[in-house]
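Example record for the data management plan.
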Amino acid sequence: DFMHKYRNWFPFLVLLAALIILHQQCFLRDDDLVFSKQTLSSSFLLERYMTWSSRVIIESVLIIVLHLPFIIWELMDILLTMGLCMGLSYLFVPKEQRCVGNWAVVVLYLLYPFEQLSNAGWVATTVNYLWPVAFTVFAMLPLRLLAEGKEISRRVILFAALAMIFAQDAELCWIILAMAYGGTVAVCGFRRQYRFFIGTQLLITIVMFLKIIFCPGNHKRYISEIYSWFPDYEKITVFDRLDLSLTSTVGHFFVLPDIMMFVFGIVLVLLVWQCQKNWLWRLFACMPLLLKSVC
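Corresponding structural encoding:
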């Protein structure tokens, strides 16, 4: 009875144990060492905004975390990773499929090459990329409550607003949240159901968009990165860029050896076959696994 009652939580206990073990191999390196010597100041953030990046909120958090004992980052990273996986489960896994869905979320996360989170240093990479994704999920929690017809408390709204401010400091997370809340506005407008908190989140989205789009540093970094990694980029057409992005992305997932994509295909097939009786959806679910097997 005990195992049956708490079986939905068991995958997250496995994840917690795995994260504790994985974080034992982490240490300061590369950009971690650079930012750990930097003092947080308005002049530094202004210089970064004008010459390199609009992610001044993320970089402020990065500097603060690097001036704390390393174990603080370890605890925060484990906590946010757990929150990310639990949040994904709450957002996308039906209650009746929660046990299987939780295992799927945990397995897919653990299949991700953990070493890639150290590309620029463990702390610098996770704070810049993993943490904004976690806060993106947190910022979407009110949308799930709204879909379920539940009351959304002020504390949840405040938490989601703060999560959105941090998450949308990263450009990709801004796009995800703008689409999520933009779609919600369209649905609520069609149903003539207006919610104050959605307007607040949209206001934050607009302000963060202006911060990103008018950042001189983003444009300067764009030019710098092109000349460093792909000098001929400006010479190719838009269609060539689309073709290059498509072929490189497909090649990365389906041609290069990648156990994560293979297991993802298997998990996708199992979940769709269990949840869907429509044979067309089942056929679509088999496509990634078939492509990975053939390539």
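Summary line stored alongside the record: Residues 70-92 form the longest helix (23 residues).
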